Amino acid sequence: MGVLTGILITALIQSSSATTVMVVSFVNAGLMTLAQSIGVIMGANIGTTVTAWIISAVGFKVNIAAFAIPLLAIGMPLIFSGKGNRKSIGEFVFGFSFLFMGLSFLQEAATAMNIGDMVAGMLAHVPQDSFFTIILFIIVGALVTMIVQSGFGFEQAAALAMGQNIGTTITAFMASLTANTQARRAALAHMFFNVFGVVAFLIVFYPACDAVSWVVENLMGGGNDLFKLSAFHTAFNIINTLLLIGFVKQIEMFVCRVLPMKAQDEDYRLRFISGGLLSTAELSIMEAQKEIRSFAERCQRMAGFVPTLLETKDEMEFNKLFARIEKYENITDSMEMEIASYLNKVSEGRLSDASKTQIQKMLRQISELESIGDSVYNLGRTLNRHRMHCQEDFTAEQMQHMMTMLQLVGAALSEMLKRIDQPTTKNGVKTSLNIEHEINNYRTQLKNQNLHDVNAGLYDYQLGVFYVDFISECEKLGDYVMNVVQAGKGLNNDFGDGPINGQG
């Protein structure tokens, strides 16, 4: 489906560069996976051959940039429409108009430099029967990125077409420079795909040219070099796709190994919100929503450190794990500020009422998620204070109760992630609410039991303080989790004993 999508889109807009730039942008926004992007890139290379056939058959290339101004005229009134759907259509049309205009300006600027004419003049005197010439023309095609009109033979023109396939990869590469790691991997996959095809065809270059010439002359009834070139270009991209379509996973693994996810990307950098210009309002909201999902996953992963911290007896391991929790708490603070700043910039634009409401929900969610990070850190700090200032270990029964409470909190966090993905599910809030009530009831039960145990002399008062602090903090964490769920649903807080607005 990815290959077919790439063929269709590129055939319609007659620009594989436009398709790959959009693919890189979608991967950067988290709207498309790396594996999906590889399929679309393969299809884009086939779709771009439609242009060559149009030139061969009709003798001209449709200048789609000429439609940019009329499209702007259509899109502008829709953008200022009060209805969200019309506004989205207007932004869609408007965005494509600027995409075509931008690509047209880049092409005109390159043409104005007369690089093609200069290179054509130099290469016109190169011997045509040398394999070294074929290599040279591939390099030139990659640099010039267009087939120049001159007295070249079919083989030399085919070599230029192969080099042009490599040259077009620079567009996606440049688009990925300010994007995240996944988007850069998509651009690298595009480059790998085209380079692999060139290397593979070089091995059988002359037999391939002879085969294409025979097919055009004997089966298609013509000897026109333009038809031969179009057939070669099409055969090159189709065969390359057929060779690699079964190895998408391997290509994905290869680019992931070449461009590994850095620790900085994992810990400090937002994954879906780029540092460049804002996208359209709705797409920006989608990017922020995926970032909030990543934020919630990080909070869940952070909370997962606490059970290990509770059970560890090794002081060095305890300090190492507590330092990691502290690091994560700082990350959650930064994520809240960066996502909030991004949403505030988005809200400055023209938004539909639905988008404004969505941003308000998301701002509340990130505030509550940051409070979850604070609460998890407080759990770790309670355990650290107990280790430093209390000589008595938690009893076996206390340990069991604390682990049970952490399991309830873990269940609440897992349910929270489901609700972030599907906030409108009817029974979703009810399930989270049941877990929250269970946490509250268990907290009350353990606090009452603690008073009884301290009075009975089962352990001293100071140990009981640390124990109750830990249990109470778990209950607060559960409240923050419930607040995130309610924010996504658009409800108000209804907990009398819980924190309001995520005061961490």
Keywords:
504 residues, mainly alpha
How would you summarize this macromolecular structure in one to three sentences?
This protein is mainly α and 504 residues long. The protein has helices at residues 2-13, 16-28, 34-47, 49-58, 68-79, 84-112, 115-123, 131-144, 154-167, 169-175, 181-203, 205-219, 225-244, 248-258, 263-267, 281-303, 305-311, 315-347, 353-389, 396-421, 426-455, 461-489.
- The end-to-end span amounts to 47 Å
Percent in helix: over 70%
Proportion of residues in extended strands: under 5%
Task: Give the overall silhouette.
Answer: elongated
Class from secondary-structure proportions? mainly alpha
Query: Total helix count?
Result: 22
Order of helices and strands: HHHHHHHHHHHHHHHHHHHHHH
Q: Quote the average pLDDT.
A: 79
Q: What value does the Rg take, in angstroms?
A: 30 Å
Number of strands: 0
Main sheet specs = none
Low-confidence stretches: 145-151, 264-268, 492-504
